[in-house]
Amino acid sequence: MAQYTQHPVSAPPTAPERESTGHLLLRGYVILTLFVTFAHTAVYNLLGMLGAAVVLVVFTLATVAIGVPMLARNRPQAFRWRRLPWTALAYTTLALVSVAWSQWRGPTLLTWLLLAAVTVNGLFVAHVLTWHEIVRALSSTFKWILGLSIALELWVSLVIHGPLLPNFAVIPEDGIDPQLYWVRDNLFDGGRLQGIVANANILAIISLFAILTFGVLFAARARWRTTLALWMLLAAFFLVRTASTTALICAAAVGVALAVALVMRRARTPGDRTRIYVIAIGGSAVLAAAVWLLREPLLDLVGRSADLTGRSDKIWTAVLERAAQHPLFGNGFSSPWIPDDPAFDGWIVDHGLTVFHAHNMWLDVLMQLGILGVILMGISYLSLLWRSWFFAVDRPRWDLNSSRNFSPITLLPSMFTIVLLVQGLSESTPIMLWGWMLLVMFTFKLKSVPLIGVGEREQLFDRGARARRIP
Fold first, then answer.
1. pTM, 2 dp
2. CA dihedral over 357, 362, 363, 365, signed as positive or negative
3. Is 163 helix (H, G, I), strand (E, B) or coil?
4. Secondary structure element (H or E) that encloses residue 166, with its range
5. CA separation for the pair 178, 180 (Å, rounded)
6. Is there a cis peptide before residue 178, judged by omega within 30 degrees of 0?
7. Which residue from 181, 240, 179 is spatially nearest to 207, judged by alpha carbons?
8. Helix, strand, coil percentages in the chain from 3-state DSSP, rounded to 5
9. Which tens digits make up the pLDDT trace of 316-355?
10. Under 8 Å CB-to-CB from 452, ≥6 apart: which residues?
11. Number of H helices, E strands in the chain
12. I need a surface site. Which of 149, 314, 434, 469 has the fewest CB within 10 A?
């Protein structure tokens, strides 16, 4: 029986290009690295302080062992030294140099090793993966965190029938402060969920990141869109059950920014863009002023006090007093604070526990590295916000073709950056661990690959994606 085809004999169809086993293993290692960074408290609660330190050292050494041979084989074209996030690296250098005048040298050296390890891993991920692969790696990481979180919550509620302490320790008969619980057994009683990260506020931000990542992949018409929708529902469930005011404010800010970005993509002339910016900035200013004037009833509505749960009256006042002692270069780097160190032990106490950060990234930097540190951190985040915003709203163009379609992938860095900046007003996470890793990773990637589809590996992936209908 005759068969007909539209392919000429001279150009038979070919199978899409496959990824090598080595690259698949590399992507798997990156996912594991991201998981250990985002779920660092789970590693700590599972293995203890010594075990968490060993994991950090092992992953950092592995990253160096993998990355250095890759640079040796592919340089000088592969690694763009001029595109490094130099301001962020200057901040890292200042943090190390601050040991010379630090009021707490032990915590400075200890936490700087953590900062350096996260910086190295962030640079590594940005260098070895394409934009599409980074988004897919983040997606896999968030799936693992959310999946293990719901599994742990179910296990605690259905099997243990009670709260769980870190390292599976036995709860004393006379009770213990609920702040020390790994999981509080709140899945079926309506309380706040903490998941494997042992913190409702952190789980809420990770859930928001997950919704954004899954949503971008869904819009990019990734495979298994129904599965992505189910993961988004699970992330939304955690976002609601964590009852984090900070995360909800971050979600609102991202929603506004996303709407503006999508409208900007439809603008045809510079004048249209100018009008959109004027309306967006003016509307945001009016909305921010209204929220500030109505902050007390709004905070009462969500069950929070007017002093932001003790931040302004207790934590921020004490931090500002200590920052005033050394305003230019600060008192010495320590992110996070080490509660057992005499400089921090009992300094600021909340719920009977020593606080380990300032609950405001800018005040934290001011106290640690002074005005100079605030300037470097401000430039780092302003640079990331600027690059990520135009990465999202500018049509991709690297030749005479000006009609290329926008990619949903380009929206993700700007949305993540806005979440970090808003979260930084009430938390210090954006200057350490996964917050700092995202800053370094996105900044380096945006500087080295400012357009999706540019570069040999990006184009190779795009050709395979079109054949497989995945991003």
1. 0.89
2. positive
3. coil
4. none
5. 5
6. no
7. 240
8. 70, 0, 30
9. 999 999 999 999 999 999 999 998 889 998 888 887 788 8
10. 131, 132, 396, 407, 409, 410, 458, 462
11. 15, 2
12. 469
